[in-house]
Amino acid sequence: MNKWEILNHAETACYQEEREVLVRGDRRWITALHYAFQDDNYLYLAMDYCVGGDLLTLLGKFGDHIPEEMAQFYLAEIVMAIDSVHKLGYVHRDIKPDNILLTADGHVKLGDFGSCLRLQEDGMVHSSLAVGTPDYLSPEILRALESREGYGPECDWWALGICAFEMLFGSTPFYAESLPETYGKILHFQEHFEFPPLAAAVSAEGRSLIQGLICEPQERLGAGGALDFWGHPFFSGVHWATLHHCTPPYQPTVSNGTDTSNFDVVDDCLSRMEALSGMRGSQPAGAHLAFVGYSYMATGETKDCSRDTVMSTDKQQSGDSEGLIRDNLLTESVSEELPKPFEHHLVLSKGPAGHVHGDDTDLDAAMTMELHRQLQEAEQRSRGLEEEIRQLQGELESLRARRLTELNIHEPHLFLPAHRLDATGDGKLAPPACHYPLVIRLHRHLLLFHRVWRPGVTGESYLLVCAAGVELQAWSRQQSAELS
Which residues lie in coiled coils (predicted)? Predict the structure, then answer.
C-alpha cells in the first residue's frame, strides 16, 4: 500500500484498522497475517495465499449462481466470519463475493479489511463517505452521506443478503446502468426489491433469509450476532459448532501452492503508484510518523495451520494422499473452533418443531450459565479496575503535593509590572493589561508565567524574566514584607 496515497486520502484510509483486525482476528474465518512491515514508500502485509480462489470466480464457474445446498454452506461460514469481525468491535463495510476467499480445501476466509472501521462507544461508526462497493451498500450508509448520522454493524448483514441473492439468482437486486440510479434503488428498496421470475426454483426458506437481511436495520437478522442464523429454517441441518471441520460442497482444483487458476486475474492490478522518495521536495515533515508501530510479526502461538495447508497442497502434487489438507485442519482441537458462549455444544441440529437442540445439553440453559459466568468475571474485573483507579488517584495527589513543596510559591497577589516587548525597541511602558503570578524556582532557568486577564482591559503585554533564582527569591521576600 502506497504511503503517499494513504496520506493524500487520510479520510478514507483504514490501514491501521486493517492491520488490527488481521492481527487480532479469528484465523479460522479471516486471512492469517504473518508479517506487517514498511519501507520509505510502502506498507506491506504478508498473509496466507488462499489458493482456492474467491466466491466471485466460483459463481462464474457455475453460471453466476450456485445450488442452494452449496449456498447454505458458504453463507453459514460467511456468517461466522462476519460475526468474528463484529466481536472484535469492527465493521467490515465491504462484504461482497470478491472478498470471500476460498482455501485449498474449499473453506471460506474473509479478506480485504481496507474499509474496516472500529465501532465507537455508541455501537456505531460515524462516516460521511460511501466506502464500499455500490451494489452492496446498505441504505443507512447512503443516508449517512447527508444526515451525518452513524450506522452499525447491520450494514454488513445487508451486504450478506445481497450476496445470498446473487448466489441464488445470479445477479444483484439493485443493479442499474448508472450509480445514481443504483443508489436511488437502494435508498427506496421497498419499492424496487423483488424476486426474479425464477424465484420459484429457490426454496421459501431461502427467500425468507434474503428478506430478513434486505430490510430496515432495526428489523434485520444479525442484531444478535451469529445466533440469529442458527435457528433460521434455511440453515436447517448445519452443524455450526463443527462447521470449520465439515467437508465443503466444492473442492477447488489446485495444482500447487502458488496456483492462480482459481482467480480471474486482472493484469493491471499492480499499477504504478507515486513514491514518497520521488516527492522529497513536497514531502510533508513527519510524513512517516503516521505509520509508527505498524510492523508486526506473528509468533508461534498466533500462527495456525493455514501455512501447512499450502505446504500440503504442494505435497499432493508429489503423490501424497488427498486427505493431507483436511488432516492438518483436524489437528486443531474442536473447542478452539467454537465461539466462546457455545463452546460446549459440539453438534447442533434443527428439530422437527423448529427448535435448536444440542447434544445432551439444553442450549438456552447452557447459554444462560455461560453468560452469567461472563457477567461475574466482568464485575470482578470492574471492581479490580476501580480499586486500581483509586490507587492511581492517591498517587497522583501525592505527586502533586510533593511538586508544590518543591516549588517556592510566594504571595499570590504579588505581581511584576508588565512591559511591552516592542519590535521598534522604544521600551515604552504599556498599560497593565495582564499580570503574572510569580512562581520562583531555586535554580537558574527561564521562568514561564500564567497570564491572568483583567476585566475591561483590551491591551496585551508580555513579560519575560530570566534571572538567578536566588536573587529573585531575596527580592520577592522583600516585596512580601513591604506588602504585609
Answer: 368-402
The amino acid that residue 355 corresponds to is: H
154, 125 contact by CB (below 8 A): no
Per-residue DSSP letters for 420-470? ---TT----B----EE---EE-SS-EEE----EEPTT--------EEE-HH
**Cell numbers placing 286:** 513527519
Can you tell me which residue has the cell 426454483?
201
Distance in angstroms (rounded) separating the CA atoms of residues 69 and 332: 26
The pLDDT confidence band at residue 339, using thresholds 50, 70 and 90, is very low
DSSP character for 209? H
Q: CA 87 to CA 29: how far, in whole Å? A: 13
The SS3 assignment for 2 reads strand
What single-letter amino acid sits at 78?
I
Q: Which residues are catalytic?
A: 94
Give the tens place of pLDDT for each residue, 404-436.
Answer: 766 554 444 444 444 444 444 444 444 444 444
Domain ranges of the chain: 3-333, 364-406, 410-483
Left, alpha or beta for 42 (phi > 0: left; psi -120 to 50: alpha)? beta
pLDDT digits (tens, 9 = 90+) for 117-170: 999 988 898 887 777 889 999 999 999 888 878 899 999 999 999 999 999 999
The model's pTM:
0.61
Fold of 3-333: Transferase(Phosphotransferase); domain 1 (1.10.510)
Q: Are 258 and 51 in contact (CB under 8 A)?
A: yes
Distances (CA, A) of 70 to 76, 103, 248: 10, 16, 8
Alpha carbon 103 to chain centroid distance? 23
- Angle, CA of 174, 178 and 179, to the nearest 5°: 70
Among residues 131, 132, 156, 147, which one has the least CA distance to residue 220? 156
Do β-strands 296-297 and 356-358 pair in parallel, antiparallel, or remain unpaired? unpaired
Between 193 and 460, whose confidence is greater?
193
For the packed helices 154-169 and 68-87, what is the interaxial angle rounded to 10 degrees?
Answer: 170
CB-CB contact of 452 with 437 (8 Å): yes
Asked whether the beta carbons of 96 and 136 are under 8 A apart, the reply is yes
Task: Name, in order, each residue with C-beta under 8 angstroms of 53's C-beta and a sequence gap of 6 or more.
Answer: 101, 102, 252, 261, 262, 263
Q: Grade residue 300 by pLDDT with cuts at 50, 70 and 90.
A: low
Q: Which H or E run includes 80?
A: helix 68-87
Residues in the chain: 484
- What CA–CA distance (Å, rounded) separates 50 from 32? 10
